[in-house]
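User: Show me a protein chain along with its predicted structure.
Assistant: Here is one chain, sequence first, then structure tokens.
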Amino acid sequence: MPTVLRALLLSALLTLVPVAVGVARSGDETLSRDPAAYQGTPLADFDTAKAVVQRVPFCDLVPEPAVTEALGQEATLAPYGNGERSDAFPGGDVAHEYGCRFSPADTAATAEARGWVFAPPVTPEAAQRMVETPVAKTCTALPAAPAYGAPSAGTLCPGDGVQTVSFRGLFGDAWLACSLTLPADVPQDDVVDRAGRWCVAVAQAASVPLT
């Protein structure tokens, strides 16, 4: 998701859900388990209604093969946490989420994979308002996108030589989002498919495993 749109959604959330960020979170401990085996599951084949997403750090649980498949090469991770300053926001603002930024090891490559979960809890009403927030003029909604939580939304945003597909939605009280940015010459259907598989990996990493 473009930084501006993401900032607007976060601003809307903090306005709609006036909860102290220092209190309204599940904690700062990473989920204590090993990364799950990566299956490369299409988003359409993943039942997001069964995912129990936690509002905690989860970057270490994202399978390396998921990152490699999404970006087409190995990548480096730049995680950030709730209350930290991050260049993921305009001016390096303070984050109110737990997020992961994966960038290609080849610094000349124009690609990036991200995943983040808001630290404050989100109500269904607030989530619905965020889903209904108009996308940026340069972006296009993906009305036929598979569910990524409930409610949820998907967008395609072109940029300078790149294109970004993002999915976001509510899992319980956790607002989870993910995005994949690839060069503009990659076929759109391929970008959407790879983004969907990437977002499934993000949801699985941020969730309590099903038993």
